[in-house]
């Protein structure tokens, strides 16, 4: 499968609990942190929920 790089761009302060937990589930804690995940429907769904806080690019 393809891989994507997800980078946290904005803070999770004043966001809903669901969005904060989604960021943690993706493995993102600090601004500027980058993680790599495979492009599964689960991961893409999580990225969609927090797309305004992260940037995504193909690895």
Which homologous superfamily in CATH is the superfamily?
Ribosomal protein L30/L7
- In percent terms, what proportion of residues is strand? 25-35%
Helices and strands, in N-to-C order?
Answer: EHEHE
What structural category arises from helix and sheet content? alpha+beta
Euclidean distance between termini CA atoms: 11 Å
Mean pLDDT: 97
Q: What is the CATH topology? A: Ribosomal Protein L30, Chain: A
Report helical residue fraction.
25-40%
Instruction: Choose one word for the global shape.
Output: globular
C-alpha Rg (nearest Å): 10 Å
Number of domains: 1
User: What is the annotated CATH architecture?
Assistant: 2-Layer Sandwich
- Unreliable stretches covering 5 or more consecutive residues: none
> What is the name of the CATH class?
Alpha Beta
Strand order of the largest sheet: 2-1-3
Total helical segments? 2
Total strand segments: 3
Largest sheet: 3 strands, antiparallel
């Amino acid at each position: 499968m393809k891989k994507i790089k997800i980078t946290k761009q904005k803070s999770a302060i004043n966001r809903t609990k669901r969005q904060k937990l989604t960021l943690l589930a993706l493995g993102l804690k600090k601004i500027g942190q980058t993680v790599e995940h495979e492009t599964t429907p689960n991961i893409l769904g999580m990225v969609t929920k927090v797309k305004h806080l992260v940037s995504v690019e193909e690895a």
